[in-house]
Amino acid sequence: MPHTAFTSSTVFSSGYTPGYAKLNKRGGAGGWSPLDSDHYQWLQVDLGSRKQVSAIATQGRYSSSDWMTRYRLLYSDTGRNWKPYHQDGNIWAFSGNSNSESVVRHDLQQGIVARFLRFVPLDWSEEGRIGLRIEVYGCSYWADIINFDGQGVISYRFKVKKMKIIKDVIALRFKTSESEGVILHGEGQQGDYITLELRKAKLLLQINLGSNQYGSILGHTSVTTGSLLDDNHWHSVVIERYRRNVNFTLDRHMQHFRTNGEFDHLDLDYELSFGGMPYSGKPVGGGRKNFKGCMESINYNGDNITDLARRKKLDTSSFRNLTFSCVETHTFPVFFNATSFLQLPGRASHNTLSVGFQFRTWNSNGLLLFSNLDDGTLEISLDDGKIVVHINVWTATRNNRVDLSSGSGLNDGQWHAVRLIAKENFAILTIDGDELSAVRSTSPLTITTGGTYHLGGYFLQTLSPPSQHSFQGCMQAILVDDQPADLHAVEKGTAGAFENVSLDMCAIIDRCMPNHCEHGGRCRQTWESFSCTCDGRGYTGATCHTSIYEPSCEAYKHLGRSSDTYWIDPDGSGPLSPFKVNCNMTEDKVWTTVMNNLPPKTAVSGSSREKRTVLQVNYSASMDQVTAITTSAEYCEQQIAYSCQKSRLLNTPDGTPYTWWVGRGSEKHFYWGGSGPGIQKCACGIDRNCTDPKYDCNCDADLPQWRDDSGLLVYKEHLPVSQVAVGDTSRPGSLAKLTVGPLRCQGDSNYWNAASFTTPSSYLHFATFQGETSADISFYFKTSAPYGVFLENLGNTDFIRLELKSPQVVSFSFDVGNGPVELTVHSATPLNDDQWHRVMAERNVKEAVLQLDQTYRSSQLAPAQGHTRLELFSQLYVGAAGGQRGFLGCIRALRMNAITLDLEERAKVTPGVKPGCQGHCTSFGMYCQNGGKCVEKYNGYLCDCTDTAYNGPFCTKDVGGFFEAGTLVKYNFIPEAVAGDSRDTKIPMHQVTQREVNLTKEELSFSFSTSSAPAILMYVSSKSQDYLAVVLRQNGSMQVQYNLGGLKEPFAVDVDQRNLANGQPHSISVSRINRSITIQLDHYPPVSYTLPDASDTQFNLVKTLFLGKVYEIGSIDPVRIERYNTPGFIGCLSQVQFNGIAPLKSALRIAGKLVESNCGASPLTIPPMSAATDPWHLDNTDAEFPFNEERVIPDGVNRDSAIIGGIIAVVIFTILCTLVFLIRYMFRHKGTYHTNEAKGSGESAGESMDTAIIGTDNPETIDESKKEWFI
């Protein structure tokens, strides 16, 4: 390169001229140095013509202490209107040299095409001054250029009249200073079209491959990309379309989308026009401007449009003057930062003030112009996106003030024009040349200009300072007192003044394009940064990357949640949005249910094989969302039922079925519920019990009676059912009803996907982690080791690592090119406690976050400027880092950027690593409440509630029953052996030691609600005279009675004198240890009592526990039974527990008369509840006992038995008189039983020691053929 190709801002002396600034050259003083080392210096090189530049290199001045340590690169085609080099969304600052001899080379991530390059030092050697030698690497560049004047259009005529195009490739480069203009357009008579245009300096692609006349297919598709494209710099566009798939690329940023509608071909007529709308075409929308600027390298499906135009092979007749070189504009932009100002001279002592300029910014506030008038001040500022003008004029008698305001949202990054004219008693403010909306003032005003104007900032002391002091943005087309500002003179220092201003450059960046806010988050920006608004999207974080919902119902259960409707997000930070499902947490499984909109037993008519009726099944989630559930589920099922009347279903195994269903992937399936893939049968065909053995479905028998074929579809790869095509309901008498149940899936294999690392050197390896600009990692771990690396992935210099650094510290470290960054969280308790802990780490262009157990959190903001892309090359290692500090323990549910890594599958073939992990109860056992025991499973755990008074997945569901008059629950502590009773039933006898039935302590508790008194709530009998009773007396007060012997009367405790039979729930707990008794009622403090010294402390030979009513053969207290046992307890009992036994729960496990209800444990707000109003109450006339088919009338009157008994009584009255009196005496109390006690007890004892017996009394004489109802 000749010396004349190098120029600079200033030169230190003749030996330091820019011509010596060549890499490794020693001529002159060994390089270039400016006169002053400050931020206004630059070195410029003219490459002679446009070149494609791929790399640059710098070196300090030879054998000196002069070099630059950081610099910016500007480039231009003309030596004017400079553009700074961008990388990673920022104006890039290159690292320079650390000495005078070493060469630092940078390959440009974004290659540039330019003729002029300018190096601008930002920092330099502390020991010397700026010194520089440079080299530029690249290759030649040539392209045909066409200048569009805003009038001319190039028409590319097709070889045939109508084109049916299935594939398009369109490429071009353009530059313009206009924000609007059509770049290309084509259309067809059928309504197809393609249009590429600038709209508000963004690139808009509109394409329609076809719509139909009914409006059911709408093909219009619109996609926007880019921003600030009116910067008069080159931009590259590529559109690639194959059928409905489109890649839309602007300046190497590609968007992929699919066009709307169902058509694949683009049907165009006659021509495709470049630069505007064709004159013959029908306009798609009015008011569209033609493109004004330059285009080069226009290619359409292999044809070089610019070359064809140059050779006059295309129609260019609309051009007034077609030129093949770019006509440059003469704008001179000025770039301001927060410390900048530009001072321009104007006319002094003039009675008319006239200023104008264009500006663009992202900030909503800023000082645009300030001037000290001869007798006042003028301020033009941006206030909340509006232009505000304040004119203050002081006179000897008063202060005149004029305020004008206009516009809104002017901080949108677009160029906006401001024009202010003020003179005597008149001022007018115009925005964007809109005279109709100009703001005027006719207030008294006398203007005398001061002659000096400050733009973009004012930092001097003044009596009336401006409301704002600085501006961040660009200005151009500046007019002062109706004269264009001579910015060239300002640049040379011959007029005006400036500070920290970049001349002939607008370094505006759209930080929201491309949009780093994910999942629909709204991007808002200022000049220096952007922020994301994630409200209502279901995501959180600086870039709306992380889902706020759990991935599955399984995860909610392990947070201690119960059955309910939940939002889930199966792919976390992936593209699927959250959706609602029903989660049913049972004792041992977690079911996820997705509902559909097909009503049960939907009638189908008028269908045939030739014209099937297709029923669409739509779900409460999209098909992709449902697929995410089925993919991770361990098991799925869906009920499908076909009720038919002379309507065939499948008919034959060989022929095409009359009816089929469509599942996932739009695949037809010819099997029915209860069968499997490839087996064209129904459930009855599998079980061989169809109505007609010749057919494999009940409906295929073609009978006139209603038949049904139903069953479960369980092949989850085919689910859910999306369509059912019915084909045999068109014949006379043919009817069919279809039911498709909800999709139910159980388990989450991703959540429990785990691996156990057994040696420090063991690890799993996976493909390289792809998380360039946004990365999230989450997993669970448990260990007893004090340290270990969870995972690591390396690049050349970049890396990412998660590590347990010490027993209480987790570390997240990475490097994206700005140097290593480490985040740590410190736990208050040791993490090597062999319990599960959750780690979540996220890194994006805004910040990095590390979170532990949703309790401890650490974050660090990303640098405002610097590298943002994480570039990794090695494999991802899980469990170790090159064999050092290997992890010992378990890792599960490892998810990286929405993908769950299959640790189990990889562990099966990796030495030192085992699939799965045991020991879940150490972490989740706390969720098993009320004495429930945690039981380990391979995938998770379950709560065993057997020995509690509760049910449910966490032993928190109250177990209660509704007692009618006479209903009782009897629980035998020891089997009752009755001789001569076991002819039909073998009764296993359990050996019970004396220690087990003689008690010195009891723990009992229960809840109840009733409106009736008196009543026996609980009674524990024995084979001796001992007993324990909890009763409600006549007035509704509660009493606890202990009779352990040694006293003349039982020891009675009046728990409360209030009426507890008030319909409200109450709870009671009684605890006895020897003589000490503690009783607590509801939420009142416990009260202690002591048995008298004369009382025995041993509860001897405990036999039976009764709830609701006592019916006992043996030693009982007849007085108290008489007093409290009639008519029996009516109401609810729940949470009944006695010394670790749950008698009521045992009774409810067997179907029978007792109706399950939790009304005894409801909040203290429910009204009194009777049998007629209990929501859980079943009509007793429909309730049957499983061991006897006879029905029981609830009011206790068996009318047939009464009539027969009456007739017999009249005929033989005199003979049986004595017997009748005896019977009436025995059965005068309601609730008595005439029963074979021993046989029922023996049958129950044969099942278990924990035997519960439920019964309902009958006050009438019961025939001997009837049995007591034992459950």
Structural description of this entry:
This protein is mainly β and about 1250 residues long. About 5% of the residues lie in helices and about 40% in strands. The protein has 13 helices and 84 strands. Strand 26 (about 365-375) and strand 27 form a beta hairpin.
Tally of separate helices: 13
Specify the oligomeric state: single chain
CATH architecture level-2 label of the largest domain: Sandwich
Structural class: mainly beta
The outline comes out as elongated
Number of domains: 6
The proportion of residues in beta strands is 35-45%
Strand tally is: 84
Rg, please? Answer: 44 Å
Provide mean pLDDT, rounded.
Answer: 84
What is the CATH C level class of the largest domain, in words?
Mainly Beta
- Whole-Å distance between the termini? 105 Å
Helical fraction equals under 10%
pLDDT < 50 runs, ≥5 residues: 978-995, 1162-1206, 1223-1254, 1256-1271
What do we call the CATH topology of the largest domain? Jelly Rolls
Largest sheet: 8 strands, antiparallel
